[in-house]
Amino acid sequence: MDLSDDLGTVKPHLSRGSHMTYAMGTCVMELASVLAGEPFSDRPECIHPTLAKVARMVNDQVGDDERQRLVPLLPQMMGGPRSGERVGLIIALTCLDHAPSGPSQRKVNRHRKHVLRRLEWINGRDRLSPLGRIRCRLEAHRAIDAAVVATRRRAERALTVMLSDVVRICCWSPPAPDTRPAPAGERVASLV
Fold first, then answer.
1. pLDDT in tens, 144-182
2. Where are the domains of the chain?
3. What is the rounded distance in angstroms from the CA atom of residue 22 to the CA atom of residue 30?
4. Using H for helix, E for strand and C for coil, what is the string for 49-77?
């Protein structure tokens, strides 16, 4: 089934994990790739890689009902920034802000300190070396892992709220001129 031919009649049902084809199921990032006219993948080019990581993790950690609430976030995710180490670190900080107090608080605080230090480090530079970019991404991804694990213990809804806040904060910039075949926002609106 080619979803891009007739989005108006197909209502996707998001599910956990990665899938080989749309007919086998779809996660929120795979749906984004289809809506953007990209090859079917859970790593769409139209969404910042760190934001996509958060979305995949939330998609896989929440139940079916909560997972369907991720679909309305797609237009903002697809219209947000697509690259940048600062954005990745800001995404990580936003996730850490959602981690609840509790047994993992020390770990979360340690990650917050590392992410803030890395953010200060890149703010003083015009360009990053390839190694610097990798270090920023690694720090952001470690922090996100810790935040999602800590937040998951609280409740599924907390993870969805966390992703909603990440999208609201990191997708603040006006979308770049769209060269995609059809407006993603309209396509997503037809799915909700």
1. 888 888 887 667 778 888 888 888 887 765 544 444 444
2. 3-47+64-81+174-189, 85-170
3. 8
4. HHHHHHHHHHHHHCCHHHHHHHHHHHHHH
Using CA atoms, how far apart are residues 14 and 113, in angstroms rounded to an integer?
A: 35
Q: Compute the distance between CA of residue 52 and CA of residue 78 in angstroms, rounded to an integer.
A: 10
pLDDT number for residue 114: 92
Asked if 35 and 57 touch (Cβ cutoff 8 Å), the reply is no
Q: Which residues have a Cβ under 8 Å from the Cβ of 8 and sit 6 or more positions away? A: 190
Its pTM stands at 0.75
Question: What local confidence, expressed as pLDDT, does residue 176 receive?
Answer: 47
Cα–Cα distance, 32 to 43 (Å, whole number): 9
CA distance 147 to 134: 20
pLDDT value, residue 2: 41
pLDDT at 133: 83
Distance CA(43)–CA(78), nearest Å, equals: 12
9 DSSP assignment = G
φ, ψ (nearest 5 deg) of residue 180: -75, 155
Q: Is residue 71's pLDDT more than 60?
A: yes
Q: Which helix (H) or strand (E) holds 192?
A: none
